[in-house]
Amino acid sequence: MPTAGFDFAVLRRALEHGDAATLVALYAEDAEMTIVDRNRPPSAPLRLLGRPAIAGFWRDVCARETTHAVAEEVVGADRIAFVEHCAYPDGCNVVSAMTLDVREGRIARHLTVQAWDEVIGSAG
């Protein structure tokens, strides 16, 4: 079900195929991304403001040798939530729970909370 002009299937394909350019195009120019994980706790999360900063993040993520699978999506009128499962060749698995606020067909706010396996030598 599309959300205010937002096509979740496009997001899913871009994540699962590592398509950074398509991912970046889904964000509003003034979008905000917040990431909480073992290295960026709730008191000091990673905050990326604006599409250029978010683009750098997605280019880095999509350049990694990982597999991605999107599941458990809930698509609403102006909010989307889903889980992304990632696997690195070294055996490290990552689970990311994401919530997106959509405005005028673009992602305006993105929150990720993620956890990953402890694998010696893992990039995480």
TrEMBL record:
Domain SnoaL-like per the UniProt entry, residue ranges: 13-110
InterPro entries noted in UniProt: NTF2-like_dom_sf, SnoaL-like
Pfam families: SnoaL_2
Domain of life: Bacteria
Gene3D superfamilies: 3.10.450.50
Protein name: Nuclear transport factor 2 family protein
Gene source species: Dankookia rubra
